[in-house]
Amino acid sequence: MKALWFVAISILFLSGCDDQQPQLYKWPTDFHNEFTGRDNYQFVMTNPPEGQRALITFLADYFQQHPLEPVEYGAIIYRESSDTPINGDVPKAGIWDQTMRGPSKATVDIDEYVIASLLRVKYEGKPEILRIFLEGEYRGVCKQSEFNIIDVIPGQPLPATCN
Predict the structure, then answer these.
(1) Nearest to 52 by CA among 154, 157, 140
(2) Distance between CA atoms of 129 and 117, rounded to whole angstroms?
(3) Pairing of strands 31-32, 73-79
(4) What is the pLDDT of residues 30-50, one digit of tens each?
(5) Count of alpha carbons within 13 Å of 110, Cβ hemisphere only?
(6) Cα gap 88→90, rounded to integer Å
(7) What radius of gyration do the chain's Cα atoms show?
(8) With the C-alpha atoms ordered 38, 86, 66, 144, is the resulting torsion angle positive or negative?
C-alpha cells in the first residue's frame, strides 16, 4: 500500500514539473504585407507566457538576442495549434473554408491564432523602436495600455502594461 501511495505522489509531483518555457519558431515562408509592400516574418510560439508584461518581456529579449535583417521589419506571432504548426505547414483550405464570393482560399484562416504583431523601426535621429501590437487574449484596455501598442526602446525600462 505504501508503494502505491509513493507512486501516486511521485506522479502528481512530476506532472507539475513540466512547465516549459515559451519558444519561438520562425516559419520558412514570409507573409506579404500588401499595405507596406514588404514581406513580414512569421513565428509560432509554443507555451506562450501569461499576461501582457510576460509576453512583452519575452519578445523584447528574444528579438534583442536574435536580430533579424533588414533593420526595419515586421513580424506576426501565432499561438501554436493544429492550424499553425511549428514548421509553418498551414493546412490547405477545404470546400467549407471557401467564401461564396471572391477568390478561393489556398489555406485555412489563421487570424484567430495571432497573439502579437511587431514592427521594428528606426526614425532618423531617434533610437530604434520595437513596437508590439497585442492581439487575442493579450489585448486589454487600461490606462497604461489604452491602444494595446507597446513601444520597447533598447536600454530603457519596459513601459507599463495592464497586467
Answers:
(1) 140
(2) 14
(3) unpaired
(4) 777 777 677 788 999 999 999
(5) 26
(6) 6
(7) 20
(8) positive
Residue 38 three-state SS = coil
- Burial of 38 (C-beta count, 10 Å sphere; 0-12/13-18/19+): middle
Tell whether the torsion through CA atoms of 88, 80, 136 and 152 is positive or negative: negative
From residue 97, alpha-carbon distances to 33, 86, 91, 100, 134 in Å are 22, 22, 11, 10, 26
pTM more than 0.85: no
Q: Where are the domains of the chain?
A: 22-152
Q: What is the pLDDT of residues 109-142, one digit of tens each?
A: 888 999 999 988 888 887 889 999 999 999 887 8
